[in-house]
Design brief:
mainly alpha; 2 strands; globular
Length: 195
């Protein structure tokens, strides 16, 4: 069970990285400058990893490309819409906007994106995933455990730093530091008056 979860985590990172490369190249070409896409500071777009892992878990035993395409298209659209809405509620920002595309829903999703993600689902489930599984199966267990531990720590740190930056964590730390200083001054004054 743990090995399966470790493999899923590595697959999640792999597809998050591939999604980051796709997004960065696409947006860089559109804007004629280098653009680092993604939610995290590191080279990962977790929504792609999440979508790919859900596709592998749900559609791994399906071999009909039309069914995979349709389920991937609908599933990715729901995931993308939900992620956009949640991130906007949490961070008051939008990472993508399809308002200029035809057949969009509140700029969060669009038909073209849904079609691309449907094709991507077929590419992952029937194309890349068997090879990705073969590679991860070749990793010796001690190396697998170490690799997953190190990559998980790096990912957690990146997530914490990213979220902290977005939530103005420095401001919170300053307030906390001021409160601690005030408390120390109060305790110090109390100690002096008791002497």
């Amino acid at each position: 069970m743990i090995i399966t979860l470790e493999h899923y985590f590595l697959w999640f990172l792999f597809y998050s990285f591939v999604g980051w490369m796709y997004e960065s190249i696409l947006v860089s070409c559109q804007q004629h400058r280098l653009v680092n896409r993604g939610f995290l500071n590191g080279p990962l777009c977790p929504i792609y990893g999440t979508g790919a892992i859900l596709g592998v878990a749900i559609l791994g035993n399906v071999h009909n490309p039309i069914i995979i395409f349709l389920i991937s298209m609908v599933g990715a659209t729901i995931l993308e819409y939900t992620t956009s809405w949640v991130m906007e509620q949490l961070f008051h920002a939008r990472w993508w906007d399809y308002s200029n595309f035809r057949f969009n829903l509140q700029g969060r999703v669009c038909l073209l994106g849904a079609l691309i993600f449907g094709l991507g689902g077929v590419g992952v489930v029937l194309g890349s995933q068997p090879y990705v599984e073969r590679v991860t199966d070749m990793i010796p267990l001690p190396m697998l455990h170490t690799l997953v531990t190190v990559l998980a720590l790096i990912t957690i740190i990146d997530l914490a730093v990213t979220v902290a930056g977005m939530l103005e964590f420095e401001r919170v730390l300053d307030l906390l530091e001021d409160a601690c200083d005030g408390l120390l001054r109060y305790v110090s004054r109390q100690a002096e008056t008791e002497r």
